[in-house]
Structure prediction request, 270 residues.
Amino acid sequence: MTHTISFYGAGNMAQAIIAGLISSGFYKKEEIYVYNHRYEPTLQKLEEEYGIQPILNEKDLFEKSDLVILAVKPAVLTQILPQVKKYLREEHVLVSLAAGISIRQITDLTGPHKIIRAIPNTPAMVNQAMSSISPNNLTTKEEVQLVLEVFNKFGKAKVVSEQLIDAVVGVSGSAPAYVYLFIEALADGAVAQGLSRNDAYEFAAQAVLGAAKMVEETGKHPAELKDMVTSPKGTTIAAVQSLEMSNFRASVIKAVEAAAQKNRQMSEEK
Prediction:
């Protein structure tokens, strides 16, 4: 395995990963190569901001590194794989970020290769992503560990069976949107009670961030943490009762199921 890494695509997710790798020192800027399909201004901007090595043709990209992150949309991925197939070597590890495209579908377009599906989420932009890593059986433990280390540089990463990716999409990939809706609703409620809009967003966002940290760092069950703050006849239990009457938990469960089902359908349609 070489010490370089290549990105096919320079969109928001690729930029988030690159920023995490450079800020952590895991990769030096001269060890990162990027090719951007059909849109060179983005590549130029990335070069100016991070000092990465721009690549202007696909062949050079695959020659520069054994580890290639395919950071393109699903429709683009299925278009480019047949045309880059001729550049692939046995030692290449392909990491696909495309939702809804299975390892089997990638293999059908490239032939047998070392393939890993990765599902990060948008908090990668602030180094707080949660990513799943799903390798095929051709990848070695060392290669999987390298990819885990890469993804841990802009958040957290965990190896998950590809069969569970639909669940990952529901609970993590799409979840930032649910949380944004929740923060917005919290802020709206506070504004209705007289708090300024800016203050309301600050209080709501910090409350969500702090609560997540409590779950992460204490290791306590969320229900136990909830019980710690719900005093008898207090304000919190009144709010929790209102949420339960509105089917809050059932609505969230249904949202996760809906996202998982949609991802499953996307995979079946391709």
Observations:
- Residues 173-269 form a domain with the ProC C-terminal domain-like fold fold (CATH 1.10.3730.10).
- The beta strands are 5-8, 32-35, 53-54, 67-70, 93-96, 114-119, 129-135, 155-159.
